[in-house]
Amino acid sequence: MTREEKLQLILGKNAYNIDDLVSIVELLRLPGGCPWDMEQTHKSLRKDLIEETYEVIEAIDNDDPVLLREELGDALLQIVMHARIEEEAGRATFDEIAGDVCRKMIHRHPHVFGQGKADSVAEVLSNWEKIKSEEKSRNTVTDKLNAIPRQLPALMRAAKIGKKATVLDFPSVESVLSKVREELGEIEAALAEQNADQVLEEVGDLLFTAASLARLVNVEPEEALTRATDKFVSRFAAVEENAIALGQNLADMSDEEKNKLWENVKKMKICENFR
User: Fold this and answer.
1) Is the dihedral of CA 240, 243, 244, 245 positive or negative?
2) Spatial CB neighbours of 95, under 8 Å, sequence gap ≥ 6
3) Fewer C-beta within 10 Å: the chain N or C terminus?
């Protein structure tokens, strides 16, 4: 089918499906298509893929089905764009990519598509990890640690690393709390020595240890930090509003005055409206 025939086919429709989306992206990138789409590469689209993923998450967190539908479409567009780039390079078609993931899902769900057995979520996850390790030839814990993408948000990666490395773990919550206190002392020592590199390292150790603490007390660290950040923003807004009501600029106030406003806001529990 020629480009013109594909174009007329698309324009003659009132309803579209995934095959049409694949065709639309192809038309955008063919000669005579869209100059912007034609010059995109995997690397140039990397940021867009990340942003669209987070916009899907925002719609989920806000329980907004209308926005979720839109953002899922935008995320799907990113996948089709990357698949098209692969097809143009002669490495894989969209159907081949979809076929690969279909085979993967069938293989990793033997309790549905085979003779396997898994009556609980725990069994499903255990089987999944075992099958995945066999597929990827990950025979050691180190293999599994190195397989966790370095490009993940640092806190999320730290949590995943800790979960995989439980063969070398803190024996108790108290032991990890002790480690937190130890890391704080090492930060203080590095600050006293004015050693910037050491401060960087010790702060990193503290954050990694905090991720371990979260895991041991069954807290998702990304969620905990998101909630804490939202709480700070809400309290900050209340403090700033109070300063304006007093006819003052927050930046011009003394530390004592700002702390007084902050403590007043805390007492009023101005954090109930954070998401």
Assistant:
1) positive
2) none
3) N
